[in-house]
Structure formats: structure tokens, C-alpha cells
Amino acid sequence: MNRLIALAAGALALLGTAPALTVEQGDLAPAWQAVDFDGRAVEFPELLDGKPTVMVFWATWCGYCKAFMPYLERIQNDYGTEQINVLTVNAKEDGSGGDPAEYISALSMQAITVAGGDAIAAAYDVEYIPGLMVIGPDGTVAYRRAWTELPAGERVASFWSRQVRRALDQLL
Fold first, then answer.
1. Domain locations in the chain?
2. How many CB atoms lie within 10 A of CB 120?
3. In sequence order, which residues have a C-beta less than 8 Å from that of residue 141 and are 6 or more positions away?
4. Alpha-carbon torsion (150, 58, 154, 137), positive or negative
5. Is the pLDDT confidence value at 97 over 80?
6. Is 44:29 a contact under the CB 8 Å cutoff?
7. Are 97 and 65 a contacting pair, CB within 8 Å?
8. What is the CATH number of domain 22-171?
9. CB 117 within 8 A of CB 57
10. What is the C-alpha separation between 158 and 166, in angstroms, rounded?
11. pTM for the full model?
């Protein structure tokens, strides 16, 4: 009996050190707290405010991100801030692409912007940038983009835009 208890305790200890599982479509998005580029607190899921949220993990060096951001701006303009949130999380920054605060302020959208989001990216198991998700008003992941072999540029950005719009249309 003691041996069985020891084996069970060992298995539980291993589970506690196992890497986080990927947050997939249908999962509840993990809660987190961070600061925006102005130093203000940002809390998830509170920021949902009953609206679907397009969540993008980005970095200044990322060609895919630069290709997608104009599409993200159009998505926000088409749906409006009264219907959706746009949340951008700066992550996996390596210093080679410029100043993230300058980059995000140069965009002409009204996004919730999180600085230094590496811990959030890890909680969502974001392996590649951009990490792109649509979170439903209830905090459930409605869409998570898959890995692609398409090169950075208009074609893949347009493809992701259609997928995000499809997910938003199903939620609204």
C-alpha cells in the first residue's frame, strides 16, 4: 500500500512539472495580468467586456506580423470597437526589429496593447509569431491559427484575415 501511495505521489509530482498543454480551439483562455505600453494594468478575461477579441502575439522583427497588421486594422474598422476588441501582445522580442512602443503607436487602430508579453505567450503555448487567436465573449478560444508553410506577405495575411472574420462572424 505504501508503495502504491509513493508511486501515485511520484506521478503527481511529474504532472506538476510537465509542460503546459497548448491552448486549443474550444479551450478556456488562461487568465493573466500585464501592463500596456503606457504602464497601465491590463487584465484578462476582464478586458473581454462581453465582446469577441482578436488576440495577436507579435514582434517588431516579424515579417508575418508586419504583413498582417494592416488586415487587423481593416478588421477592426469593419467590425468596430463597439462589437470587437483587438488585443496585441508584444512577445519574443529580440531587439533586432526596433522599438515595440514606437511600432505599435504608429498603427492607426484602437487596440489594447500589452508590452513584454513573453509569459502570456508561454501560458498560451505560442511557439511562432504571430500567434493569432479569436477569443469569444465567454473566454473560450474560438479560433487559433495553425502553422503555415506560406511565406510572409499578402497571401498569408489575407488568408488569416478571412479565418479571423469567419470566427468573428460565428460569434456575432
1. 22-171
2. 23
3. 23, 24, 25, 26, 27, 28, 29, 133, 134, 135
4. positive
5. yes
6. yes
7. no
8. 3.40.30.10
9. yes
10. 12
11. 0.84
